[in-house]
Amino acid sequence: MDSSSGIRLNKFISDSGFCSRREADHLIEQRRVTINGKPPELGTRVGADDEVRVDGRQIQASAVNKSDRVYIAYNKPIGITCTTEVNVRGNIIDAIGHRQRIFPIGRLDKPSEGLIFLTSDGDIVNKILRAENAHDKEYLVSVDKPVSQRFIDKMCAGVPILDTLTAPCKAHMTGRFEFNIVLTQGLNRQIRRMCEFLGYNVTKLKRVRIMSVSLGKLKPGQWRNLTPQEVEQLNNAVSGSQKTTSIATTAKKAPRRTAKKITESKTATKKAPSGLQKAALKPRTKPTVKSTTKQNSATKSKTTTKTKNQTNSQTKHNSAEHHHRGNNPARPAQRKQKR
Question: Do 213 and 307 belong to one domain?
Fold first, then answer.
């Protein structure tokens, strides 16, 4: 096991036909992969003398010329699920029953039918699935209402689904309730969602072509090996996918730089608070003023009450004295005598 030379572990596993690179990464993360008896890390490279095992099963290196790879064109019937999970009833792997380990390239919805590729070449799976490669996929679609030219024009121009606008495409009417459409995208249930947005419901959806490979005379449930010419065309069609990888990498790095700038902006804001923020930093001033005001009010209230009580007491005293004086007429006479 050498970290500087050899082939990357996920590519080694996918090239063997065991699974795709993405699935290989999941297996590595789950510690189900070993190199020479030891669990490796993501990004580890495999040398010529290394022994790779998945769940104890040894993975053989693939032939350099890809002569041991399998490429299949399959006419998927309605009701078959495009998954490698064998515990799922009606999965595509059991439906084909191939002697080698294969997996589908892309998918078709369970209620849809038509052409789909399966292969043991994990490298070509990743290349075909990259949307930037813009590979044509042609469909024959039936809907529940008469197709109009306005409907076709809107489908071609792009329809807002899944928080995005679909890429421009080609379409034309083939019947009163039927139309043909060629997509380069692979959004989830794309055609069905596009039709639903425009007020139509899909009653039948059939894929008839992928790139240069057509469904031909394959009946539902039948499959055939791709011819050497078709395999060559397939590889030529995805030969420029390395540029796509660099674009995808750049796109992933962009949000990180943006996030960093946002963080720096937040830090700068904390260091130099604005006038409003300064005011917000003094929340204790108001409660103190309120408390003082309450104390002053209470003091004034007590003082006023005390003053009122004293006044009332004095008034009562004067009244009592006046009453006392009024009931004792001898006192004025005594004062006169003294004088």
Answer: no
Same domain flag for 132 and 24: no
Asked whether residue 15 falls in the same domain as residue 148, the answer is no
User: E strand or H helix at 262, and its extent?
Assistant: helix 241-271
Question: In terms of residue numbers, what domain contains 114?
Answer: 71-245
Residue 322 is assigned to a structural domain of this protein: no
CA distance 207 to 195: 16
Phi first, then psi, for residue 242 (nearest 5°) are -65, -35
State the pTM of this model: 0.61
Do residues 124 and 62 make contact, with C-beta atoms less than 8 angstroms apart?
Answer: no
Instruction: List pLDDT tens digits, range 270-326.
Output: 444 544 444 444 445 444 444 444 455 555 555 555 555 555 555 555 554 544 444
Q: Do both 141 and 174 map to the same domain? A: yes
Q: Which two tokens stand for residue 79?
A: 């009701």
Mean pLDDT, rounded, of the chain: 77
Catalytic residue check, 109 = yes
Catalytic residue among 25, 50, 94, 109: 109
Q: Over 50: is that where the pLDDT of 254 sits? A: no
Q: Give the span between the Cα atoms of 310 and 96, in whole angstroms.
A: 108
